[in-house]
Amino acid sequence: MSDTIKNYNFYGWENAGVTAVNDIYKGINTPYDLYDVLSDIWCVETCAPRLRDEWTPENKTLGQCSITAFLVQDIFGGEVYGVLRPGGNYHCYNVVGDRVFDLTSEQFSDEVLSYEDNPKQSRKVHFAKEEKRLRYEQLKGELLKKTGKND
Q1: I want to staple 69 with a disulfide (CB 3.0 to 4.6 A). Which of 46, 80, 83, 84 is the partner?
Q2: Contact 32, 40 (CB under 8 A)
Q3: CA 11 → CA 2, 104, 108, 121, 146, distances in Å?
Q4: Maximum distance among all Cα pairs of the chain, rounded to whole angstroms
C-alpha cells in the first residue's frame, strides 16, 4: 500500500492505521488493505441469512459484521465489541489498542451507531451458530485465495 491513505467510508477509517500482528495473508498489512480485498469478496453467500433478501453489491457490507470483525481480530488482534440492535442482535466492530473501527458500518447508511460502552463479543458464542461459523470460514478461504499465504 502506498503512503497516501485514500478516504474510506467505514466508521473510524481515519484511525484504522493499525498493523497486522501476523503475516498470514500476503499484502494484508492494515485494515485498509483488508477492506479493499473484502470489497471483492463480500457476497450474498457470506451475508447473514436473515438479511440476504436485502443484500446488494451496492450494500456489500450488509450482514457481514461478525464474520468480518472476527477476521479482523485474527489479523490485527484487539477485541470485538457489539452494538445492541433492535431485535436483540449485535452489530460487531473492532477495537485495537485505542483505535475503534468498523469495516462493515456502511450498511447503516446515515444511521449513527454508538461505539462506546458496548459489550465484548465472544467468538465461541457467535460461532455456536453453525451457519455463521461456515460463513466465517468461507470469508477466510476466499481471502486466502485472493491474497495467497505468506511463506
Answers
A1: 80
A2: no
A3: 21, 8, 10, 18, 25
A4: 44
